[in-house]
Design a protein that fits this description.
The protein has five helices and six strands; from the N terminus they run ααββαααββββ. By secondary structure, it is of the alpha+beta class.
Length: 194
């Protein structure tokens, strides 16, 4: 008998959720920012700004269809082996390349201070690369390179492929994205690594 009530409850809950999701008053879209609900003491669920306010401005590397090169134990070499000149163009200039490459070199050299030089103050990204002992890194290529505008603020995204070599000889292939933004003084810095 409990199963029957559970099934009925599930159906009723599903119907209610579907009704609330589809119930835009007067045919207006729920994502319409000019539409406001009255007589409510609870905040409306909002879509994060990054999902609807991003305008692709320029893309130098598109990750769609990009073939990821696997690095095995026999191919692994500690260091930064990215041909930055190959990608150097427009927004991916000497300033951004120098800061990005310096950060990667800080990781390879296990130098936290070098790693943090171009991060925004207060950034806590050391745990991404410095929490394990006897790990070596090989940064081998880029898989994303774009400049976009989010809520009127420019952002440069750089996707990097790398291999992580553990002390037991195991090699793990990974990818991570760097997010550069300009500060009030007009200086590009690393805002996030994710």
């Amino acid at each position: 008998m409990n199963k029957r009530y559970y099934d009925i409850f599930s159906v009723v809950l599903t119907v209610l959720l579907l009704q609330s999701a589809c119930a835009a008053s007067d045919g207006e879209s729920m994502n319409n920012p000019s539409h406001t609900h009255t007589n409510s003491n609870t905040p409306a669920i909002q879509i994060p700004a990054a999902t609807h306010a991003a305008n692709k401005e320029e893309r130098l590397i598109d990750p769609e269809g990009y073939e990821f090169k696997e690095i095995g134990a026999e191919d692994f070499k500690k260091g930064v082996f990215i041909d930055f000149e190959r990608y150097k163009k427009n927004f991916f200039n000497d300033d951004i390349i120098s800061k990005f490459k310096g950060n990667l070199e800080g990781i390879v050299e296990n130098d936290i201070e070098k790693f943090k030089i171009h991060l925004y103050e207060g950034s806590q990204k050391e745990s991404l690369f410095f929490h394990e002992e006897n790990v070596q890194y090989m940064f081998n290529d880029l898989d994303l390179l774009e400049k976009i505008i989010i809520d009127g603020r420019e952002q440069i995204r750089i996707g990097v492929q790398y291999a992580k070599n553990y002390s037991d000889g195991t090699v793990e292939n990974k990818a991570i994205t760097y997010f550069f933004t300009e500060n009030k003084e007009g200086e590009w810095r690393i805002e996030n690594i994710d």
